[in-house]
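Practice problem 4.
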């Protein structure tokens, strides 16, 4: 393979490309067949849903007293039996006993077909009834080809159940149209594959000829520069024919652009690293030395140093951000960070998501709150409240927290549990009261939630303290 000519390698690549295209065409055709079948199945399911809606309409008229049951069933049967789509496709229906009451094959109407099987012995109708009774679905089976009865083709039908009248209804896929679309896709893919392969083959013939000519003329010039080709300041000679001169000129232009970029990166990188050094004097920074040759390796080394220092600055920024968001006394969110996170979370709630805003009031029975009492209360909050809950310390008042949940009773249950735990730990020295504001969805602002929770807290404190009130 090492001694194989460029022409042979190019044609080998074309052969591999054509093989890959052929495999890809087969896979795409297979995927398209599955996609088309899924689309057909979706259409069938939609048509059956429409038929079921028709039955529901006449049943509703029956319930409203507009029609008798016999009239409603007759009108519904007439309407559904008239449905045709995808050519001659129809809706079939049967009653609870398995008797066909609507079918594209008129001879089956009025006949009990519960025992009908496909040519392989599969209990077709029984399976359709079972699937319909379980909520609706598809049933796969075999069916003779309309053109050649000796050939069995896979077929799929969808069945559903209309419970008020005990009717099973469904429809099958139009396999003739499905197979026609698949054949069209296969033919189109094959034609496209042939055209693309021929077009690329013609282009490659021209490419091989021109590349061989250029390489032969450039060998001597490239050999002269082989020892110093890594230096971006070196340039190729423009001797030779037009093709060689163009290629050499393009190489020189590229080298000049890379040199300019390398010089710019080096200059800006040194400015960046100098700034990092001023911000973090203890940082060890190794600036690449480019006093000799200017290579891409030196540029990569400079970029690597910039990335390392940028990551260090990012970590420092994250640490500062975390420190700014934390309350220094309790380690919870600061009041500003708490307000910001709640404001950001409210618009993301949907209309059915319950959430609760709580203000916890701690009143000392003997004087001001002691730091150890606050620390003990923080420990209780961290133990009882979920990890994803937002909470903050309110100086000289207590705490506030907000969270969303799925169970509508979860907010009050959690508040009562927290109240019990706080009383158990601090009840001897503090009155613990909770004020709650709860709601579905994001209809209330942060200010309104806070105001309602605070008013509920004031009510709890006025009525003796150590209580939980919801606004």
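Answer key:
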């Amino acid at each position: 393979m090492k001694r194989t000519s460029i022409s042979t390698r190019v044609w080998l690549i074309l052969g591999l490309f054509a093989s890959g295209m052929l495999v890809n065409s087969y896979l795409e055709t297979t995927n398209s067949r599955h996609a088309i079948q899924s689309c057909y199945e979706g259409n069938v399911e939609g048509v059956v849903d429409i038929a079921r809606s028709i039955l529901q309409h006449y049943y509703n008229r029956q319930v409203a007293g507009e029609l008798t049951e016999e009239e409603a069933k007759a009108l519904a049967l007439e309407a559904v039996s008239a449905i045709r789509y995808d050519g001659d496709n129809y809706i079939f229906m049967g009653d609870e006993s398995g008797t066909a009451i609507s079918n594209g094959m008129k001879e089956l109407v009025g006949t009990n077909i519960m025992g009908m099987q496909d040519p392989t012995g599969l209990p077709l109708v029984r399976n359709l009834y079972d699937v319909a009774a379980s909520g609706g679905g598809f049933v796969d089976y075999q069916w003779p080809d309309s053109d050649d009865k000796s050939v069995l083709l896979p077929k799929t039908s969808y069945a559903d159940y209309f419970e008020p009248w005990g009717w099973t209804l469904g429809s099958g896929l139009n396999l003739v149209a499905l197979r026609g679309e698949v054949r069209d896709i296969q033919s189109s893919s094959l034609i496209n594959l042939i055209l693309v392969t021929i077009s690329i083959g013609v282009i490659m013939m021209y490419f091989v000829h021109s590349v061989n000519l250029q390489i032969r003329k450039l060998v001597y010039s490239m050999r002269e520069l082989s020892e110093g080709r890594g230096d971006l300041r070196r340039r190729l000679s423009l001797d030779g024919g037009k093709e060689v001169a163009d290629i050499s000129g393009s190489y020189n232009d590229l080298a000049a652009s890379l040199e300019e970029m390398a010089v710019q990166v080096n200059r800006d990188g040194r400015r960046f690293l100098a700034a990092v050094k001023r911000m973090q004097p203890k940082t060890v920074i190794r600036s690449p030395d480019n006093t000799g040759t200017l290579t891409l390796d030196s540029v990569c080394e400079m970029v690597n140093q910039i990335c390392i220092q940028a990551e260090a600055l990012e970590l420092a920024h994250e640490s500062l951000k975390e420190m700014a968001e934390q309350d220094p006394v309790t380690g919870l969110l600061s009041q500003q960070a708490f307000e910001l996170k709640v404001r950001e979370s409210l618009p993301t709630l949907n209309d059915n998501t319950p959430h609760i805003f709580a203000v916890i009031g701690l009143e000392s029975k003997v004087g001001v709150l002691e730091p150890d009492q606050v620390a003990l209360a923080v420990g209780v909050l961290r133990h009882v409240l979920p990890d994803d809950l937002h909470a903050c310390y309110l100086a000289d008042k207590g705490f506030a927290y907000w969270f969303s949940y799925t169970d509508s009773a979860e907010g009050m249950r959690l508040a009562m549990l927290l109240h019990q735990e706080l009383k158990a730990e601090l009840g001897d020295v503090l009155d613990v009261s909770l004020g709650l504001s709860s709601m579905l969805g994001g209809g209330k602002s942060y200010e309104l939630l806070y105001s309602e929770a605070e008013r509920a807290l004031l009510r709890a404190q006025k009525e003796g303290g150590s209580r939980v009130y919801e606004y």
